[in-house]
Design a protein that fits this description.
seven-stranded parallel beta sheet; alpha/beta; homodimer; globular; two-stranded antiparallel sheet; DNA-binding; disordered N terminus; about 325 residues
DNA sequence: AAGCCGGGTGAACAAACGTGCAAGGAGGGG
DNA sequence: CCCCTCCTTGCACGTTTGTTCACCCGGCTT
């Protein structure tokens, strides 16, 4: 990028800031702003879009603390976590649901992440959707770290996971640390060995002191299986084993039962996500769930105390509190 | 207000929140929202207006810290205060200027005031303009306190000042403490006496430990005199005295010279605003200035170290840094 | 030097939005 | 019980905003 480009860039930002100020603080019309900035109305429209898209304009919704939605209150009382219920009409499809929840999370995420923080991020369809919408917020010295490997029998999985992580990293100006291992090792011993490598243990150490974790839930036996279960990461025998162990879900390729327990689930010895005892040390653990198919999985994750902040669509939230 | 009204009220807020979420977080059109909420598009438009007006939706502009405007940077370097430069076209009238700066301040004020804080507020045309636009933000246990008396020879001044203070109090859900004394006493001894009254000294004590002060500047000898100078608060003899003392401005009816000094200005013995030594103890001191007519006054206030955060229109900011 | 390419611009159109207005409905007073 | 008042609603209209398109301009290639 040349010097000229750079200064043009900063001109553009300056103009966008001015336009945003005039539009959102002083309530001028775009026409009036165009006049003050000696340009056309369309350009102002574009400037403002740009300002919103790049996070120069930050729009928050603050419910007066005395009136959180009834559902959020119920969830808070029942599970002692903060719930963010995303309004989605009951007749929406699961794809819609996912997309809309993801969009909401993408917009609000900046409130949980700041300079000099470390955020751990899983991967999967939910994370992918969020990553495509996340609104930028400039931070300094912050790190984003991949929670679990993404390789499978066919690929190293690097491109998929790194695309997702990359978008988060770009949006926050954070350093991205990838985790270049398969999602599941074939042999537990290989994992043990690799875990002792300094390059890997450095990552594990970072994971153990991250400030925020962001993840979705896997639900192996629901009708709309999550990415992990459709992507060729597991074999028939693995499924049988999961079924035998009465697994209801996973977080970053670590599986758990309906009561939140993980003991004796053999696949976990080969999975690459953070152990739940490690995860539970993380101060903020943001879980994003959409669709009632993941209800059992969500209940298990709550039992396992994996969640401090839950983002969930309205119907699923309702189902969560419906029957005890 | 009946029980039914109350619940209707909260329904309205709930709907407004949902609408705001759908509109600002999920980018639905008002049409789509109307459909989801089973109402008309116009009602959604109104709901959203309501949500913005009542502060349910909070729009902030965050300039990336590496790119504050050149002017703000210059002011910061020269005077060691935080400047908020409000873009206003050069050809705007002084009335425009005031109105637009006031609007901007009104929108941003919530960022400086929170629960359990005490804010001192002056009165005058600037404060009046701000008060008419201030966006609400619910707080608990916060207090707003009048900085200086408002009575004059004709009226107690209560209605004007209390109208202003009342709007701030209402917007923040804060308890308002009025200061029922004249702007200037006729006799310094009366002030002394009253200052020893417990009801008054309680107010003075609160003033001495306020968290934020918000004030404009008076400029007695400019061509567009401030409220105090037009409202019959002072007599010819007073003006002469001010002129003799080389006064350039006042904050809350306390006068100062170009070098920021106040010693020997006789009128101050009869004024009712907080002594500058008291004011300087306040952590955040927000000063709102618009129009180059107040430039001399502003320079004096800066010399007197009365300001920590300055809100000023662009031309005045430019003039401030122009000649040394 | 001509020619392509990418990014940005304003005009024109289409979509989305705000608002005056008349109609309807709840509540309160006669 | 009726009527009056006040508030809210949806419609219709005019305005404001988003987006497409043709065009221009600087930079880079051939």
């Amino acid at each position: 990028m040349s010097l000229v480009d750079e200064s043009a860039q900063s001109d553009r930002v300056r103009d966008a800031l001015t336009a945003a100020h005039l539009y959102y603080m002083q309530d001028l019309t775009m026409d009036a702003i165009a006049h003050e900035l000696h340009t056309s109305r369309s350009s102002v429209s574009r400037l403002l879009s740009h300002a919103r898209a790049t996070g120069l304009v930050d729009i928050q919704i603050r419910s007066p603390l005395d009136a959180p939605s009834r559902l959020e209150l119920l969830i808070q009382e029942r599970f002692h976590i903060t719930a963010h219920v995303v309004p989605v009409p009951d007749h929406a499809t699961d794809v819609d649901r996912l997309e809309r929840v993801a969009l909401s999370v993408a917009r609000i995420l900046g409130q949980f992440f700041d300079s000099n923080m470390v955020m751990g991020i899983a991967w999967g369809s939910t994370m992918n959707a969020i990553s495509r919408h996340v609104t930028p917020k400039q931070t300094h010295g912050s790190q984003i770290i991949q929670l679990n490997g993404a390789g499978n029998m066919r690929t190293t999985g690097l491109s998929y996971a790194s695309e997702i992580l990359g978008r988060f990293g770009y949006a926050f100006g954070a350093h991205v640390h990838q985790f270049p291992v398969p999602a599941f090792f074939d042999n537990p011993a290989t994992k043990q060995a690799l875990w002792r490598e300094r390059s890997v243990s450095r990552l594990l150490e970072m994971q153990s002191r991250m400030d925020v974790a962001l993840f979705g839930l896997g639900s192996p036996f629901s009708e709309v299986p999550s990415h992990v279960y459709a992507g060729g990461y597991l074999e028939e025998a693995d499924y049988a084993s999961l079924s035998r162990s009465e697994v209801v879900g996973d977080v970053a390729t670590i599986f758990y039962r309906a009561d939140g327990s993980t003991d004796g689930i053999q696949l976990n010895a080969r999975g690459t996500g953070p152990d739940f005892t490690v995860l539970r040390q993380t101060p903020r653990r943001l879980c994003v769930v959409s669709g009632t198919a993941k209800l059992a999985s969500l209940r298990g994750a709550l039992k396992a105390d994996l969640i401090t902040d839950l983002f969930v669509d309205e119907s699923t939230a309702r189902a969560l509190v419906a029957n005890a």
